[in-house]
Write a structure and sequence with these properties.
13 strands; EC 2.5.1.16; about 290 residues; Spermidine Synthase, Chain: A, domain 2; globular
Amino acid sequence: MISREKRHNEVWFTEESTKHLRLSLRVTGELVRKETPYQSLLALETAEYGRMLVLDGAIQVTEKDEFCYHEMMAHVPLCSHPNPKKVLIVGGGDGGSLREAVKHESVEKAVLVDIDEEVIKTSREFFPTLSCAMDDPKAEIRPMDAMVYMKDHRGEFDVIIVDATDPVDMAAGLFQSPFYRDVWDALSDDGFMVTHIESPFTDAAIMVPAYRAMKEVFPSVHPYLGFMPTYPSGMWVYAIGSKRHDPSKPLREAPKGLKYYTSDVHRASFALPPFLVDMLENGEGVESHY
């Protein structure tokens, strides 16, 4: 929602995170606004966080803090896999996860599959710091349905990064066990999948079922924590489904020049506070805020 504050003649964007919680950023310019075949797309200039991409009213990325999310999505699985060569990114049309994946020397191919080509085009035009790897020789961009793509690529990928939007409308299925089974089938015998499962403070009613759905498919599921200032509550939970290996221990150093991820951060992110363990394992404190 975009509104104008009369007293200061300022324009503000407000995300309604829940019915009780909103996040507002002052807008200094509008880059693009369009209805795609799949969702409402908005790109804005903000005073505090630089350029920002919004889909269906929810903040997806900002230039200032996106590295916190993308580095934890990509480097945790890639640094703990013995030899990741092929990576699939489901969603992630802004290009941030792809940018991080191709930094790994072992990665020979990284495929980005996003159903909404307009997100890819907007990122190329207005978010060059995120989309900068889309023309990398290792990268392959596929604007199509990831479910269809995975069914044609069984057992092919060492790491699958599910960089989905919030689990509503067309993305709801990306947080359910039938989708995780498709991911399982597309992974190699020692593969990892990683996804975000939202915030324990605002999205526990989404987080816990998603975690349990992963456990229905993968023999080992490891949740871990990161910080994302412009996502609801700022505390963000990720989860890795593993066929064989323990992702909590990095096996190699990360690429140079990162701003959030280190091997120490990797190990520490798997140390969960008791309230979160209780919530994930026992459903303690879970209620919907929507």
